[in-house]
Amino acid sequence: MTSIPTAFTQADARHKPWVSSYGAIPAEIDAEAHGSIVELMEQAMADHADKPAFHCLGQTLSYADVDQQSRALAAYLQQRLGVRKGDRVALMTPNLLAFPIACLGIARAGAIQVNVNPLYTPRELEHQLRDSGARVLIIYNGVTATAAELLCRADAPLKLDALLTVALDDGSAAVLPSPPVDARLAGKASTFGEALRIGLDLHFDPVPIEGEDLLFLQYTGGTTGLSKGAALSHRNVVANVQQFKAVMASGLRSGEEVIVTAIPLYHIFALTVNFIAYFSVGAANWLVPNPRDMDSLVDVMKASRCTVITGVNTLFAALANHPRAREIDFSRLRIAGGGGAAVMEATSTQWQALTGTFIREGYGLSETSPVVSFNPDHVSHYNGTTGLPLPSTDVRLIRDDGSDAALGESGEICVKGPQVMRGYWNQPDADAAAFTADGFFRTGDVGTFTPEGFLKIVDRKKDMIIVSGFNVFPNEIEAVASAYPGVLECACIGVPDERTGEAIRLIVVRAASAALDEQALIEHCRHHLTAYKIPRQVVFVEQLPKSTVGKILRRELRNQPVT
Questions:
Q1: pTM, 2 dp
Q2: DSSP per position, 42-68
Q3: Under 8 Å CB-to-CB from 166, ≥6 apart: which residues?
Q4: Two domains, one topology: 10-33+230-460 and 464-559
């Protein structure tokens, strides 16, 4: 793995228009405030031992419970499986109590966690396991068929040192009905619950961990080619936690916060912010295993009376439009954080009307641990931006010719700071393409700065549509269309056109019982957009394809035929 110069130094100093908007926010944070994530989390477990740490499926774990069980897993990994510092352990589960136990157990053993989407196909799982060199796979019972396809095939079966299967009730005293483990894995797997029970009686050897040691391999979405593992160190994540705390101090009150985690924990935003940052201040975290089950999510919202919730635009829109939404007591809600995709003004307006709180947008990537910018706690209303770059973060907007964009002009967002990854796992060629000569990470996103230094994402370079030579960014059209009554969700793509090169197709999900037709929506867009940005075609669908985090997948829409 190539060593990338990511730390900001005085030699890099340039005019940063955002610093003048910081107010009481410090311009720099101490990335060495904690020697490792293990040190940070062990301090939290000592400080908040008796407080509830996680609620899930009717069960609760205290901070002391998490301490005991993660230590037991670390001992099991060391003593029974021979896991040593730097070994890779893959974790493939939804938001269950087992996830934070496993995460802390892996870290305390000095190993590197490989986060795997439980909905991956055998091909996708195999790539991550082979690429990372993972020795151990911890996997939810309900998706063990995926692992069985790899481990039990007749031709070149995948080799693992150990497979631990996770049931719904692992980590708790409850007995909950769980999906069975795939029968093909008989004799090839042990249970996570058994590992915890055995580990309680095993000796744990604390592992010396330094900031540069790797913590996570966070694989990118793989929208082009095979996914790559962003190598995130303990220092990267410690720094990002410190940065987030600096901009959101009022939203991380020690021992007082209650957060709902509907975003999957294997996603880097939930992992760093919902889990690690809020765990470090003694928050009670309500885990949602399946956020697509909206009735269950409403039940969690009612029971938790949360102070914080994070999500993507589609989740907030779905909650705000749910027929039971007004059953929820939002009186304690102080922070609604949005990321992963643009937060639409119409969604934030609807959310604020329901809850009294606007959606506070941020921006980040797997490669940046993840947060790059966020609307800090002194921002009081929706502003259509992703906020201010975090302390100790430098952001350049670079034109196609490599020069810096002028203020108000768009350019590729390039980032340097202590939260930026060490590089891609065993991908020196990818590193060379992803970083500038002076160590700025090229995000592939296009953005602009307001005069006050707030960063606005224009769009992904690859999502840009070119109509008669004009650049059209889908976010702008989607924001206009989503403000029209009756539009629940929408997505914009470019389609081939003989006359203009590309034409704009808008794909729309109608709100329930909405009387909405193509021409009315096009006329609305015509009123708010210049001619070349107006959709040529509107297609109505029942639902839009989304990632497990809830991001609308435009690439899949491009491949779908129009019916």
A1: 0.87
A2: HHHHHHTTTSEEEEETTEEEEHHHHHH
A3: 93, 96, 98, 102, 138, 139, 140, 141, 191, 192
A4: no
